[in-house]
Write a structure and sequence with these properties.
Rossmann fold, about 240 residues, alpha/beta, Arc Repressor Mutant, subunit A, single chain, 2 domains, 5-stranded parallel sheet
């Protein structure tokens, strides 16, 4: 199946360059020149990936990414950032991007990242198909439907970002297993994000706020001080 990618970028030279190279590997590229147009295209069409410039006229890329995460949680986003500072990289991840690349970038490196994301999407879809016969993963009042990417707590629907869902799926699939921040970062985000362990903490805090009755005293995702986190064993659950 031919892949469709949306590029939201106001630099005409970058648009032409990517359109040429992606066409050569069988990818159809749609282009939007500002954040508002890009968000409208992303919400009203089906894309395998959105490539998003962080510095756009009008609505900036970070705001577009946050909007996409609210409305199209499973749509992969690759941020193109003009700065190489740590704060901007962290902001990309905190906005919900799956990956980022700093300008000026190597076209070979960018194509490698695109192919890597598309492979992960395909693997996730295959994993979901393979697990569909297993039904719903559940623990206490928490239910995780892997195939439908759906989470409920006490029968109430909980809306998670892709990274929050990936974290929860990893935890609930391994009750009692302790994960360090570095391991969680490598498994869920990928090894290229080594050194950004604080991003794990912020995602887990948001995840707890959505699934726990009392987030400061979590019932499901437990902190193992000085080590990392674990998902509760059955005997750990409180009535």
């Amino acid at each position: 199946m031919k892949k469709n990618i949306l590029l939201i970028e106001d630099n005409a030279e970058i648009c032409s360059l990517l359109e040429f190279h992606l066409k050569n590997i069988g990818i159809q590229l749609d282009i939007a020149r500002d954040g508002a147009e890009g968000l409208e295209l992303a919400l009203n069409n089906e894309y395998s990936l959105v490539m998003l410039d962080s510095t756009l006229p009008g609505t900036d890329g970070f705001e577009v990414c946050r909007s996409l995460r609210e409305k199209k949680k499973r749509l992969p986003v690759l941020m193109l950032t003009s700065k190489n500072e740590e704060f901007d990289k962290v902001l990309c991840l905190e906005s919900g991007a799956d990956d980022y690349i700093s300008k000026p970038f190597s076209i070979l490196e960018l194509l490698a990242k695109i192919k890597s994301i598309l492979r992960r999407v395909k693997a996730f879809e295959q994993e979901s198909e393979d697990k569909s016969s297993e039904g719903v993963l559940h623990f206490g009042e928490l239910r995780v439907n892997v195939e439908k990417h759906r989470v409920t707590v006490e029968n109430n629907l909980v809306r998670l970002t892709p990274k929050e869902f990936d974290l929860l799926k990893l935890f609930i699939s391994n009750p009692g297993k302790v994960f360090t921040r570095e391991i969680l970062l490598n498994v869920v985000w990928g090894h290229q994000f080594s050194g950004y362990e604080h991003t794990v903490d912020s995602h887990i805090n948001r995840l707890r706020a959505k699934i726990e009755r009392d987030p400061p005293n979590p019932n499901y995702i437990r902190t193992i001080w000085g080590v990392g986190y674990k998902f509760a064993d059955q005997e750990d659950l409180t009535p």
